[in-house]
Design goal:
- With about 220 residues, the protein is of the alpha+beta class.
- It has a domain at about 65-200: Glutaredoxin, CATH 3.40.30.
- Helix content is about 30%, strand content about 15%.
- It has a four-stranded mixed beta sheet with strand order 2-1-5-6, with helices on both faces. A two-stranded antiparallel ribbon has the order 3-4.
- α4 (about 120-130) runs parallel beside α6 (about 185-200).
- It is globular and about 45 Å long.
């Protein structure tokens, strides 16, 4: 298996307890890595059953996320459910899944709650079209069942190669991982991104940029 990160091309070797620190919010196409994944020669983070020639990623500057913050309840904007319950519901209702990986000390996880998840139109779209799951990436107590194996939240976070917070993982209707997008996502980007995933435009070899240029249509 390739050790490279499908989002950046780097080689993450181990779990990093910090938020991603990079500039701005922009999308990057990763043709080479995607082709390696599609042909089975690279990491399977986006699922080898789909031939996706481009992978989108958000890269965000998280100023001040390195410090400790007091623990608290992370978000109340949506009907977040547990991992096991969420996957079962996704298969039953045939809905894609969004998983919010967070920590109690991450400033930008709370900013995402306040600026993005709290928007009524986003909460409504998530409720209608997605199953929303939230995972404390530092918890070691829960048992999460995924693809025939049992994980703690810490172990599942590593399995998905999440190395910064917040990070959002997108799964298809069968619970297969599509991609992981790290960093804070503003509402004006997050809602189109949800529609891109829900309409399964990635299966049609369409990039998110092309989806935006078509004003939210992939057919």
């Amino acid at each position: 298996m390739d050790d490279g990160n499908i989002l950046s091309g780097s080689a993450p070797r181990g779990f990093v307890r910090r938020s991603p620190c990079v500039f701005g919010a922009h999308f990057i196409s990763f043709c080479t890595v995607a082709r390696r994944c599609a042909t089975g020669k690279g990491d399977s983070m986006i699922g080898r059953r789909y031939h996706v020639p481009f992978i989108f990623a958000l890269v965000v500057l998280l100023i001040g996320c390195g410090g400790q913050e007091s623990a608290g309840t992370h978000g109340t904007a949506n009907a977040w459910v547990s991992f096991n319950e969420g996957l079962a519901r996704a298969r039953k209702e045939q809905k894609p899944v969004v998983i919010d990986f967070y920590t109690s000390w991450c400033k930008w996880c709370k900013v995402m709650d306040e600026r993005t998840f709290s928007k009524p139109e986003i909460a409504a779209y998530l409720g209608d079209h997605f199953v929303s799951i939230r995972i404390n990436a530092e918890s070691k107590t829960d048992r999460l069942d995924y693809e025939g194996k049992a994980y703690t939240p810490v172990e599942l976070t590593r399995h998905f190669r999440v190395t910064g917070f917040p990070s959002l993982a997108y799964l298809d209707r069968e619970g297969k991982l599509i991609t992981v997008v790290p960093g804070f996502v503003p509402p004006e980007t997050f809602l189109p991104l949800l529609k891109y995933i829900n309409k399964e435009c990635y299966k049609q070899q369409m990039t998110f940029d092309e989806f935006m240029k078509r004003k939210g249509e992939c057919e």
